[in-house]
Amino acid sequence: VLLAIGRDACTRNIGLQTIGVKINEKNGKVPVNDEEQTNVPYVYAIGDILDGKLELTPVAIQAGRLLAQRLYGGSSRKCDYINVPTTVFTPLEYGSCGFPEERAIDEYGKQNLEVYHSLFWPLEWTVPGRDNNTCYAKIICNKQDNNRVIGLHILGPNAGEVTQGFAAAIKCGLTKELLDETIGIHPTCAEVFTTMNITKSSGQDITQKGC
């Protein structure tokens, strides 16, 4: 049984109202701009307390480091809250980086996107005879930007390790063409991203007959 009850930020009794910092009354979280600045210019917020941002420890660490560099080191680098690799460590792991398909459609328009996807069968599942076509991989490409990969999703063994590796490539501007030109390591789960050729819009069958 998976029970998700959510979390509230403990911001209502620390004096924010005294200095005029606004919070989201529904969840207690703090709205900020793209530099983690609240509505009060000299007050900044980072981490899980941010409204609409990811509740992930590495994100908070990165945002804090970059904020300190901007305030005291002359830097202008901002935290990237979109291309963040993350994983749900359920028995069949789910990993993602970048936009989910629904948000990508809202951001870029469905007509400007191409979604490639595939089911796959890990080699390690063939010996125990576990069900084929239970694992899934998907990439979302922006057709208006050289088919740049703006979202990557995988459901399968070691999804966290796979996603972490591709996250660096996405930060470097990974495109569908570069994926197609990459030689896959056979037989790995990550290899599926180098062999995808079926688009979601085509409606073609994505089941696989072997690893």
Automatic annotation (TrEMBL):
The keyword Protein biosynthesis does not apply. Residues 84-196 form the Pyridine nucleotide-disulphide oxidoreductase dimerisation domain. One of its GO terms (molecular function) is flavin adenine dinucleotide binding. It holds the Pfam family Pyr_redox_2. GO terms for cellular component: cytosol; mitochondrion. One of its GO terms (biological process) is cell redox homeostasis. Keywords: Disulfide bond, FAD, Flavoprotein, NADP, Oxidoreductase, Redox-active center. Its cofactor is FAD. Residues 1-64 form the FAD/NAD(P)-binding domain. InterPro entries: FAD/NAD-bd_sf, FAD/NAD-binding_dom, FAD/NAD-linked_Rdtase_dimer_sf, GSHR/TRXR-like, Pyr_nucl-diS_OxRdtase_dimer. It comes from the Eukaryota. PANTHER family: GLUTATHIONE REDUCTASE, THIOREDOXIN-DISULFIDE REDUCTASE. Belongs to the class-I pyridine nucleotide-disulfide oxidoreductase family. This is TRXR3 reductase. It comes from Oriolus oriolus (Eurasian golden oriole). The lineage of its organism: Eukaryota, Metazoa, Chordata, Craniata, Vertebrata. The gene is Txnrd3.
